[in-house]
Amino acid sequence: MFHVKLPGQDAIARHADERVVTRRVKLPRRRVEHPLRQVAKRVTVALLVLVGTALIVYFDHDGYNDNSDGSVDLLDSFYYATVTLSTTGYGDITPVSDAARFTNIFVITPLRVMFLIILVGTTLEVLTERTREEWRLNRWRTALREHTVVIGFGTKGRSAIQTVCATGLKKEQVVVVDPNFKVIDAATADGYAGVVGDATRSDVLIRAEVQRARQIIIATQRDDTAVLVTLTARQLNRGAKIVAAVREEENAPLLKQSGADAVITSASAAGRLLGLSVLSPSAGMVMEDLIQQGSGLDIVERPVIKAEVGKGVRETEDLVVSVVRGHRVLGYDDPAIGKLQLTDRLITIVRVTPHTQVAPDMRPLRQD
Fold first, then answer.
1. What's the per-residue H, E or C state across the chain?
2. What pLDDT shows up at residue 155?
């Protein structure tokens, strides 16, 4: 059994669940008012209705009869309003004049209905909250297909999501997995669905629907964790593309053996970029521009179009840096390329602005 965390639940409930539940799904937050504030508003309205009813009775106290002493004072008015709005109706204070009865029919009765709606509505909302959460979660699971799962929402994971989303991927198609509740809160605040739990456990990845994911990005803080997550994810999904990040370059082969399609060595990549920037600051700026998707120069992967079939790499309109043929990535100057084939894919450098739309057949290369 696992819990669904939807927007609007108060902090006390969240921390109580955190002590009891170790794994749960959290959907993106909706902009709703805090539950305690909603209840406070409804109680305030109910009290205003009660006070208003009591004042109406008091101002027309001559039209009412009290069986105890015959007169109706301010306290009797509040007593009458309370037993009337709560539908208790003891009958010891009754309207006797036509005006008082008219007021009861057209004023106090609607106020009684409003009072009951406020109290009963609040109770029903609390009782049906879990049902709505379960329904929303089930609908989310049914609609989730070919999505992207990101393991770890630190600097690397966050940057990876931003890069992928910059090419047109909707936030609804991203699921973040992280063991930290606060990290998942940040992810859901950004519009992503989140799963709280240890990604090395298969049941946690199943809650993220890894078995139906199209691509998996592994950006954990530890290399050994990345290896275990890769093994578990590959066991659950044989066809997904898995890209993992490691700190130490010596662990990259182990990640590939575990099932990763591509491995990025974050420490070495950052070090090489630093070294390049020292040797040539301009070259470093160009590389930084290429890494940052959505503006300036971008690296994209696209299929060969029919007009390019049979041509050389230099004859295309785009700046081609590599050709993907089968499972091989060939450099633009590799003699093995020869003429372009219809099944080839081109890795090109294009200029993109924030208003430029990436074509559906273009897939930006993931950078870390």
1. CCEEECCCCCHHHHHHHHHHCCCEEECCCCCCCCHHHHHHHHHHHHHHHHHHHHHHHHHCHHHEEECCCCCCCHHHHHHHHHHHHCCCCCCCEEECCHHHHHHHHHHHHHHHHHHHHHHHHHHHHHHHHHHHHHHHHHHHHHHCCCCEEEECCCHHHHHHHHHHHCCCCCHHHEEEEECCHHHHHHHHHCCCEEEECCCCCHHHHHHCCHHHCCEEEECCCCHHHHHHHHHHHHHHCCCCEEEEEECCHHHHHHHHHHCCCEEEEHHHHHHHHHHHHHHCHHHHHHHHHHHCCCCEEEEEEEECCHHHCCCCHHHCCCEEEEEEECCEEEECCCHHHCCCCCCCEEEEEEEECCCCCCCCCCEECCCC
2. 85
